[in-house]
C-alpha cells in the first residue's frame, strides 16, 4: 500500500508499506519537458513510456514543461503554423487542458508529482491562469497519489518492509535553468547543485533538453563519528521535443544542436547488507 502527502509546498512524501528485493523492485518514471502539445513533440515515444510505466505499476513524476503552450496571444513566439489541429478551434488555453486531460487520464492512477516548468510559469504571468493547477484539478479525482509541486523541491520516498521502517530515499528536483550548453551539456551545474542539495541521494533536473548521468562521490561523517563514503547521483532528463538541427525554424536559426529524447527509470529495492536491510536504487534511461 502507498500513500502520498504534501508535507510543505516544496516537499512531497511517498510512504510505501512494501518494497521487494532486486528481483521485484519498485519503479518510478522520472520525466520532464514533454511539450506534448507541440508539433514536434514525439508523442508516440512519450505514450510508449507511459504505457510501460502503467504495465510496471511505476510511479510517474513530472517536473515541468508538460505543456509547450507557446501559441497564446501574448506569446511573441506564437506561430499559427505550429499549432496542432486539435487546438485550432475554441479558446486556446482551455483546449490545452481538455486535450491534456484526455491524454493523461489513463495514467493518472499512478501519477505522483506534477510541477510547473518555465513554459507554464510564462503562461501564468501573462494570462492569469495556471495550467499545472488546472490539469491537476481535473486529474485528481482519478489520481489518489497525485500532488502538485513547485518549480524546485523534494520528493522523499519512505520505505517500510514487513512492518519495519527501512529508511528514506530523497530526490531533489529543479525544473532547470540556463541555456543548452552544447559543449558541457550542463554538467557543470552538478557541482553547484551538490552544494545546494547536500541531503539528497538523487538530484534531478530538466529544461535544457540535454541528458546526462553523473555520480559525485562524497566522504561523510556520522553522528557516531564514523567516516564513510557515498555517492550522489545527478541526472538530467531530456524530454520529448524533437529538434533535428536542420531545415528551418527558430532552433535552426539559433544554432541549436539535435538533442536526446526520453526520460529516466528509477528502480528501488531492499537489500540485506551485513544483516541490515537497506534501500538500494539505480537509474537507467527510458528510450
Strand-helix topology:
Layout: E1 2-8, E2 11-16, E3 26-31, H1 43-56, E4 59-62, H2 92-104, E5 111-114, H3 118-127, H4 131-139, E6 147-148, E7 152-161, E8 164-174, H5 189-196, E9 202-205, E10 212-221, E11 227-236, H6 250-253, E12 263-273, E13 276-286
Write a compact overview of the structure shown.
With 287 residues, this protein is of the alpha/beta class. Helix content is 20%, strand content 33%.
How would you explain this protein's 3D organization?
By secondary structure, the chain is of the alpha/beta class. The protein has one domain: 4-Layer Sandwich (Purple Acid Phosphatase, chain A, domain 2). The protein has helices spanning 43-56, 92-104, 118-127, 131-139, 189-196, 250-253; strands at residues 2-8, 11-16, 26-31, 59-62, 111-114, 147-148, 152-161, 164-174, 202-205, 212-221, 227-236, 263-273, 276-286. A 7-stranded mixed sheet has the order 1-2-7-8-9-11-10, with helices on one face. A 6-stranded mixed sheet has the order 6-5-4-3-12-13, with helices on one face. Strand 10 and strand 11 form a beta hairpin. Helix 2 (92-104) crosses helix 4 (131-139).
Features:
13 strands, alpha/beta, six-stranded mixed β-sheet, globular, 6 helices, seven-stranded mixed β-sheet, Purple Acid Phosphatase, chain A, domain 2, 287 residues
| Number of structural domains | 1
Distance between the termini: 29 Å
Largest sheet: 7 strands, mixed
User: What's the CATH C level?
Assistant: Alpha Beta
Strand content: 25-35%
State the helix count: 6
- The strand count comes to 13
Q: How much helical structure, as a percent, in the residues?
A: 10-25%
Write the CATH architecture name: 4-Layer Sandwich
Strand order of the largest sheet: 1-2-7-8-9-11-10
- Kindly state the mean pLDDT as a whole number? 91
> Using only CA atoms, what is the Rg?
19 Å
Regions with little confidence, pLDDT below 50 for 5+ residues: none
Shape: globular
Amino acid at each position: 500500500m502507498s500513500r502520498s502527502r504534501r508535507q510543505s509546498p516544496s516537499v512531497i512524501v511517498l510512504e510505501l508499506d512494501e518494497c521487494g528485493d532486486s528481483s521485484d523492485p519498485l519503479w518510478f518514471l522520472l520525466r520532464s519537458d514533454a511539450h506534448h502539445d507541440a508539433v514536434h513533440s514525439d508523442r508516440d515515444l512519450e505514450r510508449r513510456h507511459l504505457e510501460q510505466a502503467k504495465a510496471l505499476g511505476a510511479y510517474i513524476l513530472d517536473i515541468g514543461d508538460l505543456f509547450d503552450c507557446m501559441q497564446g496571444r501574448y506569446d511573441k513566439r506564437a506561430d499559427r503554423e505550429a499549432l496542432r489541429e486539435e487546438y485550432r478551434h475554441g479558446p486556446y488555453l482551455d483546449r490545452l487542458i481538455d486535450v491534456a486531460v484526455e491524454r493523461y487520464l489513463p495514467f493518472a492512477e499512478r501519477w505522483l508529482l506534477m510541477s510547473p516548468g518555465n513554459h507554464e510559469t510564462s503562461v501564468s504571468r501573462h494570462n492569469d491562469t495556471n495550467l499545472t493547477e488546472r490539469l491537476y484539478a481535473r486529474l485528481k479525482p482519478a489520481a489518489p497519489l497525485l500532488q502538485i509541486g513547485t518549480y524546485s523541491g523534494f520528493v522523499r520516498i519512505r520505505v517500510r518492509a514487513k512492518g519495519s521502517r527501512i529508511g528514506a530515499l530523497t530526490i531533489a528536483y529543479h525544473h532547470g535553468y540556463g541555456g543548452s550548453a552544447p559543449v558541457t551539456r550542463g554538467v557543470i551545474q552538478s557541482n553547484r547543485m551538490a552544494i545546494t542539495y547536500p541531503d539528497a541521494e538523487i538530484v534531478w533536473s530538466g529544461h535544457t533538453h540535454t541528458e546526462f548521468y553523473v555520480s559525485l562521490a562524497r566522504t561523510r561523517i556520522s553522528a557516531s563519528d564514523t567516516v564513510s563514503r557515498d555517492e550522489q547521483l545527478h541526472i538530467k532528463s531530456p524530454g520529448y521535443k524533437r529538434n533535428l538541427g536542420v531545415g528551418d525554424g527558430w532552433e535552426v536559426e539559433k544554432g541549436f544542436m539535435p538533442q536526446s529524447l526520453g526520460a529516466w527509470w528509477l528502480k528501488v529495492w531492499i537489500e540485506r547488507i551485513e544483516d541490515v536491510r537497506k534501500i538500494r536504487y539505480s537509474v537507467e534511461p527510458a528510450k
